[in-house]
Amino acid sequence: MLTTVFIDYVRILVAGRQAEHALKASVQSVLAAYDPSLQSYGLYGVSLSEEEMTTLAREVSTRNLPSSDKASFSFTDTKANEQGIRVHGVHSLANAQVMEQEILEEMKYKAPVEFTLRLIEMFSNIRTETLQTNTFASNADELDKLIRLRDDHLKQAYHRWSEWEQANVIAGNDRQVLFHQLSQTENEIGQASSAGPLVGSKRNQEEEEARKQRLAQLRSSIDSIWSRLQVTSDRQIEADSSFFKEITRQLELAQQADSKVLQFLERLKTQQQAQSTSGQAAGSTSPLDAVFQQKWTLEEAYYASFKGQAGSVSSVNAGYHEQIRQRASSGSDHSAHMLTISELFANRHRLEQPRIASAEEDRLKREEAKRQTQQEMDLAKQQMMATGCDLSDIELYGKLEGPEGAAASFRKGLAAGIAETGATGSSIESAAGNPLDVPPETSGKASVSSLASLFSEIEKIRNDIYVNEYVLSNMNYRTIEFDSKKLPKPEALSRPAEHPLRKQEAEYILYGSPSCHLNLTLAYAEMYTTRLAIRTIEALLTPKSAAAAVTPWVMFLTAVAEGASKARVDMSRLTAGEQVELMARWPNVTLNYKDYIRLFYFLHPNYAGRLSRIQALLQVNTGTVLHNTAYYVRGELPVSVKLWFVPGLIKLLEWGNALDGTVRGSRYEWVARTAHSY
């Protein structure tokens, strides 16, 4: 009895293996019917409907199962319910993870990672200079803010000094008029007094009375003039106090700013010494460090002199005020006083001239550097606008980025997947602003900072390099026609030069903006700022740059202006498909437009958003709906085998979980299942 059970059990296992092989062949045959339009991109997927897949699988399974001819002996007598067979796709190429896996499989065989590694190695050669320049720009900017804060207070102090001088001149002129009146009145009194008293006739008595009245009036005028002189002097003393306090306050604020300058320079010196001692490789010693070792503060004697002269003006005026109060001054005394005051103000003016001249030179060089940079950036923007985009691109971008566009549908699925898995982080990048729209004083620092950020990513190379190279191998870009002529090589099966979205696919995938113009201008702007950073570094490291510096920040701005001019020329060559040297000192190390796009892919690793745009382009270029294109296929096949002996005993095996089928009459039935992917 036990033997019969084992015989039927073995027959079931054999039949199960036969059904599994037949179903596997069916599913693999379905997978073999891949979409040829996607295969030209190195991707594989079945775009057949479920009904078409099931029909194909049924034909294959029939050929691979044992014959049911009753005239011949069959050990298993395996029968398939061909009407019950079902084959369907489970995961499609619309799934971002599936798309990523397909791309990785394709690119692992082509292994183009060396292109990116070589590019990174090129830029690693300027790592030290870039990081040093980035540090210099940040330090120069911070130092410049402190110096300008100090200079603003000194400017206010000097402005108040000039106002004080003007107030003294006005007050002195007013007193001069009064002293002139006083002198005339005193002369008249002298003349009237020298005439002596008149006696005798009635007429003489009247004249004497008139003389006395005149003397009384003149003496009253003398009192009035001295009173007015007193009022004028009082007002000046009040003004002196106000001017003195404000000038002193501004000088103290300037001193505080100068103290911060000194503290900042001492901190930089300490950091540089620590880096030099520890032997840090990245920017440990820089020729630019010497700039910060110069003296950028004012001597204490300068502030003491300024405050002392302000005190002298107040003291001299106070002494002269006392003379007026006691009516002990004259016109000649006043002239001598005004000469003394004038000399005090003139001395300060002479002492201020070198500082004012230096500040004016700084202002002129600063403004000239900004003007040159802005002029070059305006020319670069004009050049940037010549994208060569076609009006037909508008319709294509509607299919890609419109409300019902392909990219939008893939992003929705991506967002749902992130919500389901609880993933965090931005998956869809927004269009970046135009770097050429920033002010000139910001553009240079931002460009160097952006280039420096490259080196923080060098240690984070991941699978996205494969995806980046997939795009650059199978999609077109702005200068693809130039490259194909100058660097002949076998064209990709996807024939990127013939795609509907001409000479811009790589830029669209990179930036994701909904128009040709935006994507190409963003690529241009980022390329320009990269070249601006490199050319600024070159200019900054030249000896003439340091020699012409008024302050470190003006030194940097001047280098930016020179770099902006050279960067614009570089862009003209790059957009024309030419090779441009990385730096002037390495004329044999050259890069082209595609190399920079490769670099930007590395700098902007927005993996998920990029995949959705790759999917959208594939769908538009091939006309294949990726949501209906299966990468992973699952099949089911109902089968049965006739039992030779006692069915009831086999049923006992079901209860023991030894079998997962069901005994129906004299036959054992189950469903064979399998799943396969590319």
Defining key terms:
678 residues; alpha+beta; two-stranded antiparallel sheet; 22 helices
Q: What sort of overall outline do the alpha carbons produce when their principal axes are compared?
A: rod-shaped
Main structural class: alpha+beta
Element-by-element helix/strand order: HHHEEHHHHHHHHHHHHHHHHEEHHEHEE
Helix content bin: 55-70%
> Count of DSSP helices?
22
Quote the average pLDDT: 84
Q: What's the end-to-end separation, in Å?
A: 47 Å
Briefly summarize what is shown:
With 678 residues, this protein is an alpha+beta fold. It has 22 helices and 7 strands. The strands form 2 sheets. Strands 1, 2, 5, 6 and 7 form a 5-stranded antiparallel beta sheet that branches. It has a two-stranded antiparallel sheet with strand order 3-4.
Could you explain the architecture of this structure?
This protein is α+β, with helices and mostly antiparallel strands. The chain has helices spanning 2-32, 36-39, 50-64, 96-110, 113-124, 127-194, 202-278, 289-292, 300-325, 331-385, 392-401, 406-421, 440-457, 464-474, 480-486, 505-511, 516-540, 543-547, 552-575, 593-603, 607-622, 647-655, and strands spanning 78-80, 86-92, 580-581, 590-591, 630-642, 662-664, 667-677. Mean pLDDT is 84; it is low at 418-432. Residues 188-211, 352-377 are annotated as: Disordered. Residues 352-373 have a biased composition (Basic and acidic residues).
